[in-house]
Amino acid sequence: MFPKTTNLSFILSPDTSLWIFGYGSLTWKPNFEFSSHRYGHIDGFARRFWQGSVTHRGTPDTPGRVATLVKSDKEECWGTAFEVRGEEQIIGALQHLRIREGVQGGYEACYVRFQPIDDSSTPMQVLVFIAVPENSLFLGWAELSTMAREIAAAGGASGPNCEYVFELAEYMRKTFPGVWDDHLFELEALVRDFVQSNCICCRDTRTIADECLNSHSCHRNQKQESIIPLEGTVGSQTTTCHKVLTY
Fold first, then answer.
1. pLDDT 10s digit of each residue in the chain, 247 long?
2. Is 83 assigned a catalytic role?
3. Beta 159-160 vs 155-156: how paired, if at all?
4. Residue 44 belongs to domain with CATH number
5. Catalytic residue among 87, 88, 101, 108
6. Helix (H, G, I), strand (E, B), or coil: what is residue 207?
7. Using an 8 Å Cβ cutoff, are 53 and 76 in contact?
8. Stated pTM of the model
9. Domain range spanning residue 111?
Protein backbone atom coordinates (compact mmCIF):
# COMPACT_ATOMS: atom_id res chain seq x y z
CA MET A 1 0.00 0.00 0.00
CA PHE A 2 1.32 3.44 -0.92
CA PRO A 3 1.32 6.18 1.75
CA LYS A 4 -1.22 8.81 0.71
CA THR A 5 -0.47 12.51 0.89
CA THR A 6 -3.72 14.30 1.65
CA ASN A 7 -2.54 17.48 3.43
CA LEU A 8 -0.16 19.66 1.45
CA SER A 9 -0.84 22.97 3.21
CA PHE A 10 2.50 22.97 5.03
CA ILE A 11 4.42 23.54 1.79
CA LEU A 12 2.75 26.85 0.94
CA SER A 13 5.25 29.23 2.55
CA PRO A 14 6.83 31.69 0.08
CA ASP A 15 10.40 30.42 0.54
CA THR A 16 9.62 26.71 0.27
CA SER A 17 10.21 24.50 -2.74
CA LEU A 18 8.54 21.25 -3.71
CA TRP A 19 9.91 18.59 -6.05
CA ILE A 20 7.46 16.67 -8.24
CA PHE A 21 8.57 13.47 -9.98
CA GLY A 22 7.37 12.75 -13.50
CA TYR A 23 7.65 9.32 -15.09
CA GLY A 24 4.89 9.46 -17.72
CA SER A 25 3.51 12.40 -19.68
CA LEU A 26 4.84 14.82 -17.03
CA THR A 27 8.37 14.13 -18.32
CA TRP A 28 7.72 15.70 -21.71
CA LYS A 29 4.56 17.71 -21.05
CA PRO A 30 4.40 19.03 -17.46
CA ASN A 31 2.14 21.99 -18.34
CA PHE A 32 2.97 23.88 -15.14
CA GLU A 33 5.57 26.51 -14.31
CA PHE A 34 8.70 25.23 -12.54
CA SER A 35 12.02 26.72 -11.42
CA SER A 36 14.40 23.86 -12.19
CA HIS A 37 14.51 20.15 -12.95
CA ARG A 38 16.76 17.19 -12.27
CA TYR A 39 17.08 13.77 -13.86
CA GLY A 40 17.26 10.60 -11.82
CA HIS A 41 15.40 7.57 -10.58
CA ILE A 42 13.39 6.10 -7.73
CA ASP A 43 14.19 2.62 -6.44
CA GLY A 44 11.74 -0.17 -5.77
CA PHE A 45 9.21 0.84 -8.45
CA ALA A 46 8.57 -0.14 -12.05
CA ARG A 47 6.73 1.81 -14.74
CA ARG A 48 3.75 -0.12 -16.12
CA PHE A 49 0.92 0.78 -18.50
CA TRP A 50 -1.72 -0.54 -16.16
CA GLN A 51 -3.84 2.59 -15.61
CA GLY A 52 -6.86 3.28 -17.78
CA SER A 53 -7.55 6.67 -19.32
CA VAL A 54 -11.06 7.71 -20.30
CA THR A 55 -10.36 11.44 -20.66
CA HIS A 56 -6.86 12.34 -21.84
CA ARG A 57 -5.94 9.26 -23.92
CA GLY A 58 -9.17 7.31 -24.22
CA THR A 59 -12.92 7.37 -23.78
CA PRO A 60 -15.32 5.40 -21.57
CA ASP A 61 -16.11 3.17 -24.56
CA THR A 62 -12.47 2.74 -25.61
CA PRO A 63 -10.18 3.30 -22.62
CA GLY A 64 -6.55 4.08 -23.26
CA ARG A 65 -3.61 2.89 -21.19
CA VAL A 66 -1.16 5.22 -19.44
CA ALA A 67 1.74 4.74 -17.07
CA THR A 68 1.63 4.17 -13.34
CA LEU A 69 4.12 2.79 -10.81
CA VAL A 70 4.01 -0.64 -9.22
CA LYS A 71 6.12 -1.98 -6.38
CA SER A 72 9.11 -3.97 -7.63
CA ASP A 73 11.98 -4.36 -5.19
CA LYS A 74 14.68 -5.09 -7.80
CA GLU A 75 13.72 -2.40 -10.31
CA GLU A 76 14.06 1.35 -10.61
CA CYS A 77 12.09 3.95 -12.55
CA TRP A 78 13.89 6.81 -14.29
CA GLY A 79 12.30 10.18 -14.85
CA THR A 80 12.45 13.90 -14.19
CA ALA A 81 11.93 15.80 -10.94
CA PHE A 82 10.57 19.33 -11.29
CA GLU A 83 11.12 21.98 -8.62
CA VAL A 84 8.24 24.35 -7.99
CA ARG A 85 9.28 27.21 -5.72
CA GLY A 86 7.19 29.67 -3.76
CA GLU A 87 3.48 29.89 -3.18
CA GLU A 88 2.48 30.86 -6.73
CA GLN A 89 4.32 28.02 -8.47
CA ILE A 90 3.39 25.43 -5.85
CA ILE A 91 -0.32 26.26 -5.83
CA GLY A 92 -0.38 26.50 -9.63
CA ALA A 93 1.27 23.10 -10.08
CA LEU A 94 -0.86 21.36 -7.45
CA GLN A 95 -4.10 22.80 -8.76
CA HIS A 96 -3.20 21.65 -12.27
CA LEU A 97 -2.13 18.19 -11.10
CA ARG A 98 -5.15 17.74 -8.84
CA ILE A 99 -7.36 17.91 -11.94
CA ARG A 100 -5.03 16.23 -14.43
CA GLU A 101 -3.82 13.37 -12.25
CA GLY A 102 -6.47 13.15 -9.53
CA VAL A 103 -9.92 14.09 -10.78
CA GLN A 104 -9.44 13.03 -14.40
CA GLY A 105 -6.70 10.45 -14.00
CA GLY A 106 -7.48 8.47 -10.85
CA TYR A 107 -4.01 8.99 -9.33
CA GLU A 108 -3.10 9.61 -5.69
CA ALA A 109 -0.19 11.64 -4.31
CA CYS A 110 2.55 10.24 -2.12
CA TYR A 111 6.21 10.87 -1.32
CA VAL A 112 9.09 8.71 -2.49
CA ARG A 113 12.89 8.91 -2.33
CA PHE A 114 14.51 10.28 -5.50
CA GLN A 115 18.16 9.75 -6.44
CA PRO A 116 19.53 12.37 -8.87
CA ILE A 117 21.52 10.99 -11.78
CA ASP A 118 24.67 12.39 -10.18
CA ASP A 119 25.30 9.75 -7.53
CA SER A 120 27.24 12.27 -5.44
CA SER A 121 24.04 14.27 -4.95
CA THR A 122 21.99 13.72 -1.83
CA PRO A 123 18.71 11.79 -2.35
CA MET A 124 15.58 13.84 -1.77
CA GLN A 125 11.89 13.42 -1.20
CA VAL A 126 9.67 14.03 -4.21
CA LEU A 127 5.92 14.10 -4.66
CA VAL A 128 4.70 11.51 -7.14
CA PHE A 129 1.27 10.56 -8.45
CA ILE A 130 0.50 6.84 -8.52
CA ALA A 131 -2.59 5.00 -9.71
CA VAL A 132 -3.25 2.38 -7.05
CA PRO A 133 -5.23 -0.78 -7.90
CA GLU A 134 -8.22 0.38 -5.87
CA ASN A 135 -9.03 3.25 -8.24
CA SER A 136 -11.91 2.75 -10.68
CA LEU A 137 -9.79 3.28 -13.81
CA PHE A 138 -7.14 0.69 -12.96
CA LEU A 139 -6.84 -1.92 -15.74
CA GLY A 140 -3.93 -3.94 -14.40
CA TRP A 141 -1.75 -6.50 -16.10
CA ALA A 142 -2.36 -7.82 -19.59
CA GLU A 143 -0.21 -9.38 -22.28
CA LEU A 144 1.91 -6.74 -24.01
CA SER A 145 0.26 -7.54 -27.33
CA THR A 146 -3.18 -6.96 -25.79
CA MET A 147 -2.08 -3.65 -24.27
CA ALA A 148 -0.55 -2.57 -27.59
CA ARG A 149 -3.80 -3.31 -29.45
CA GLU A 150 -5.78 -1.32 -26.88
CA ILE A 151 -3.37 1.62 -27.09
CA ALA A 152 -3.35 1.63 -30.90
CA ALA A 153 -7.15 1.89 -30.94
CA ALA A 154 -7.58 4.56 -28.25
CA GLY A 155 -7.47 8.32 -28.15
CA GLY A 156 -8.90 11.14 -26.08
CA ALA A 157 -8.89 14.88 -25.42
CA SER A 158 -5.09 15.06 -25.25
CA GLY A 159 -4.53 13.06 -28.43
CA PRO A 160 -3.94 9.50 -29.62
CA ASN A 161 -2.91 6.97 -26.98
CA CYS A 162 -0.08 5.85 -29.27
CA GLU A 163 1.36 9.39 -29.15
CA TYR A 164 1.67 9.09 -25.35
CA VAL A 165 3.74 5.91 -25.74
CA PHE A 166 5.90 7.25 -28.57
CA GLU A 167 6.64 10.57 -26.87
CA LEU A 168 7.52 8.92 -23.56
CA ALA A 169 9.76 6.31 -25.19
CA GLU A 170 11.56 8.97 -27.23
CA TYR A 171 12.05 11.18 -24.17
CA MET A 172 13.50 8.30 -22.17
CA ARG A 173 15.75 7.21 -25.02
CA LYS A 174 17.19 10.72 -25.49
CA THR A 175 17.42 11.68 -21.82
CA PHE A 176 18.73 8.37 -20.47
CA PRO A 177 20.59 6.71 -23.38
CA GLY A 178 22.17 4.14 -21.09
CA VAL A 179 18.89 3.00 -19.54
CA TRP A 180 16.77 0.24 -21.06
CA ASP A 181 13.11 -0.01 -20.02
CA ASP A 182 11.89 -3.43 -21.20
CA HIS A 183 8.21 -2.77 -20.60
CA LEU A 184 8.14 0.64 -22.28
CA PHE A 185 10.30 -0.12 -25.30
CA GLU A 186 8.79 -3.52 -26.06
CA LEU A 187 5.31 -2.02 -25.79
CA GLU A 188 6.35 0.87 -28.06
CA ALA A 189 7.49 -1.59 -30.75
CA LEU A 190 4.23 -3.54 -30.60
CA VAL A 191 2.11 -0.39 -30.75
CA ARG A 192 4.05 0.71 -33.84
CA ASP A 193 3.35 -2.66 -35.44
CA PHE A 194 -0.40 -2.29 -34.86
CA VAL A 195 -0.47 1.29 -36.12
CA GLN A 196 1.57 0.39 -39.21
CA SER A 197 -0.56 -2.60 -40.11
CA ASN A 198 -3.80 -0.63 -39.80
CA CYS A 199 -2.89 2.60 -41.58
CA ILE A 200 -2.38 2.49 -45.34
CA CYS A 201 0.17 5.31 -45.18
CA CYS A 202 2.30 3.65 -42.50
CA ARG A 203 1.95 0.16 -43.99
CA ASP A 204 3.26 1.34 -47.35
CA THR A 205 6.25 3.14 -45.83
CA ARG A 206 6.92 0.38 -43.24
CA THR A 207 7.27 2.97 -40.51
CA ILE A 208 5.24 5.52 -38.57
CA ALA A 209 5.75 8.17 -41.21
CA ASP A 210 5.74 11.89 -40.50
CA GLU A 211 2.88 12.31 -42.94
CA CYS A 212 0.78 9.98 -40.77
CA LEU A 213 1.50 11.77 -37.50
CA ASN A 214 1.31 15.24 -39.03
CA SER A 215 -1.29 14.92 -41.79
CA HIS A 216 -4.75 16.41 -41.73
CA SER A 217 -6.39 13.93 -44.11
CA CYS A 218 -7.63 10.41 -43.48
CA HIS A 219 -5.89 7.52 -45.23
CA ARG A 220 -8.21 4.59 -45.93
CA ASN A 221 -6.90 1.08 -46.34
CA GLN A 222 -7.44 -1.04 -49.44
CA LYS A 223 -10.65 -2.58 -48.04
CA GLN A 224 -12.09 0.91 -47.51
CA GLU A 225 -12.71 0.17 -43.84
CA SER A 226 -13.67 3.10 -41.68
CA ILE A 227 -10.73 4.77 -39.94
CA ILE A 228 -10.84 6.83 -36.75
CA PRO A 229 -8.98 10.17 -36.92
CA LEU A 230 -7.63 10.93 -33.45
CA GLU A 231 -6.24 14.42 -33.16
CA GLY A 232 -3.57 15.61 -30.76
CA THR A 233 -0.47 17.80 -30.79
CA VAL A 234 3.24 17.19 -31.19
CA GLY A 235 5.08 20.43 -30.58
CA SER A 236 3.18 23.13 -32.42
CA GLN A 237 1.69 20.76 -35.01
CA THR A 238 -1.74 19.20 -35.01
CA THR A 239 -1.49 15.45 -35.43
CA THR A 240 -3.90 12.86 -36.71
CA CYS A 241 -3.18 9.19 -36.21
CA HIS A 242 -5.41 7.01 -38.36
CA LYS A 243 -6.77 3.80 -36.86
CA VAL A 244 -8.77 1.11 -38.61
CA LEU A 245 -11.90 0.27 -36.63
CA THR A 246 -11.46 -3.49 -37.12
CA TYR A 247 -8.53 -4.62 -34.96
1. 344 444 555 445 566 899 999 999 999 999 999 999 999 999 999 999 999 999 999 999 999 999 999 999 999 999 999 999 998 999 999 999 999 988 888 899 999 999 999 877 899 999 999 998 999 999 999 999 999 999 999 999 999 999 999 999 999 999 999 999 999 999 999 999 888 776 544 444 444 444 444 432 233 333 333 333 333 333 333 333 333 323 2
2. no
3. antiparallel
4. 3.10.490.10
5. 101
6. coil
7. no
8. 0.77
9. 9-140
